[in-house]
């Protein structure tokens, strides 16, 4: 079938991380919808809870120990149409911005780390906070923690970047991120404390990810290393070992430059002037990269 070929092609490309994240969420959603429909038609609808339990993140520790994979699978699991629609819409908007500026691999790192941190904060809150302990057993599902990490990362990286919102007009994403955090705080005491807490955990990760990246530390390296290992294991590609022959020590004066070359201040001033005249969207990809390197000083 052409649909199967299209899906296979989407996952075979290495420069397609955003579409792959979107597609995984859609595929899991469609799978659960089909399973629920089949069970309902066959008269076994109560068994759907057992199926869903394999995907959602439980808040009680014994259940989590029996289903440890749910610490990640919950972030690709949705039940309602509008739940997945708005999550994927935000993922598409803000993910495209992060992907353009930081690349596919860091986009995936942000999503995964945001989901993991949001899930851990969710479990800890329900087991440590007395006010939430009576609700232990409440599950968590949805991409919101990972998406919120990407939203906060984009706002931390490019706070003055502007989105044109329907019926509102141009809004800088730092205000969009602040609104997302406000909604998450409101959700804590308005019937969805688990979701709000997970969102805040994801937001904190997104902020720290960019701040550490600007300081020269990539928090996503462990995620990428594990992903590469799993990818090699699945594809059957062996890990390459590189051996180096011993060489005479180099003279102290022959110091190698390992740090990326910083753009000249004149170039940065020109880029900032261009932003003030035409907006951030007018910058080329090379200019955006130079501006990011300059922010690491």
From TrEMBL:
Q: What is the lineage of its organism?
A: Bacteria, Pseudomonadati, Bacteroidota, Cytophagia, Cytophagales
Start and end of every Peptidase S54 rhomboid domain?
A: 67-210
Glycoprotein among the record's keywords?
no
**Full protein name:** Membrane associated serine protease, rhomboid family
Q: Which segments constitute the DUF6576 domain?
A: 264-297
Q: Which GO terms describe its cellular component?
A: membrane
Q: Where in the cell is it found?
A: Membrane
Enumerate the transmembrane spans: 21-42, 80-98, 110-129, 135-158, 165-188, 194-211
Q: Which Pfam families match?
A: DUF6576, Rhomboid
């Amino acid at each position: 079938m052409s649909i199967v070929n299209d899906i296979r092609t989407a996952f075979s490309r290495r420069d397609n991380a955003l579409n792959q994240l979107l597609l995984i969420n859609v595929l899991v959603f469609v799978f659960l919808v089909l399973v629920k429909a089949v069970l309902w038609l066959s008269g076994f609808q109560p068994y759907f809870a057992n199926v869903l339990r394999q995907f959602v993140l439980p808040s009680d520790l014994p259940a989590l120990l029996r289903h440890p994979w749910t610490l990640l699978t919950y972030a690709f699991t949705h039940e309602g149409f509008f739940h997945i629609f708005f999550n994927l819409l935000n993922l598409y908007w803000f993910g495209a911005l992060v992907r353009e500026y930081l690349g596919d691999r860091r986009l995936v790192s942000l999503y995964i780390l945001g989901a993991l941190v949001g899930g851990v904060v969710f479990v800890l809150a329900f087991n440590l906070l007395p006010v939430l302990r009576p609700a232990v057993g409440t599950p968590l599902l949805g991409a919101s923690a990972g998406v919120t990490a990407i939203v906060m990362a984009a706002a931390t990286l490019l706070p003055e970047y502007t989105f044109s919102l329907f019926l509102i007009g141009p809004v800088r994403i730092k205000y969009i991120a602040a609104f997302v955090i406000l909604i998450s705080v409101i959700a804590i005491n308005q019937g969805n404390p688990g979701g709000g807490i997970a969102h805040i955990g994801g937001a904190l990760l997104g902020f720290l990810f960019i701040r550490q990246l600007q300081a020269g530390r990539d928090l996503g390296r462990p995620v990428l290393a594990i992903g590469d290992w799993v990818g090699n294991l699945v594809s059957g590609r062996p890990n390459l070992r590189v051996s180096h022959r011993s060489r005479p020590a180099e003279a102290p004066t022959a110091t190698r430059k390992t740090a990326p070359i910083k753009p000249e201040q004149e170039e940065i001033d020109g880029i900032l002037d261009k932003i003030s005249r035409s907006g951030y969207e007018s910058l080329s990809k090379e200019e955006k990269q130079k501006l990011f390197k300059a922010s690491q000083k």
